[in-house]
Automatic annotation (TrEMBL):
It comes from Rubripirellula obstinata. Residues 7-99 form the CoA-binding domain. Coiled coil: none annotated. Pfam families: CoA_binding_2. InterPro entries: CoA-bd, NAD(P)-bd_dom_sf. This is CoA-binding domain-containing protein.
Length: 129
């Protein structure tokens, strides 16, 4: 199984940067994972709810540790999200285009996490499955 297949084989997901604004990429990724019948939690420190789903400020606040984490945040935010993911025990991280941060990627890989940070997009992959 390659990195992307491993990410998509997870049972639980979180989307850092999930948004209640329907035109935003964070909203589209969150909704696409839900539409693909994946247990998905939105992470957003300033939004309480996204389409009827409780939003959580950070990974430590989630009711479960997600196996896979999709990140749609600015790179400077990505660093903290990845540090939180490492501390929580997340197994797979996918930095969506624009969220990539070299320092965060290196830290996650050193922690043994499967990292996707090559510019590929989860929406494209979900559309194929």
């Amino acid at each position: 199984m390659n990195e992307i297949e491993s990410f998509l084989a997870a049972k639980t997901y979180a989307v850092a940067g999930a948004s209640a604004r329907t035109h935003k990429y964070g909203y589209k990724v969150f909704k696409a994972l839900l539409a693909a019948d994946r247990e998905t939690y939105p992470l957003n420190p300033v939004t309480e709810e996204i389409d009827g789903h409780k939003a959580y400020p950070k990974i430590a606040d989630l009711p479960v540790v997600p196996e896979s984490l999709s990140i749609i945040t600015p790179p400077e935010v990505t660093r903290q999200v990845v540090a939180d993911a490492i501390a929580a025990g997340v197994k797979h991280i996918w930095m969506q285009p624009g969220a990539e941060d070299g320092e965060a990627s290196a830290s996650a890989r050193e922690a043994g996490i499967n990292v996707i940070d090559d510019g590929s997009c989860v929406l494209v992959l979900l559309a194929r499955n």
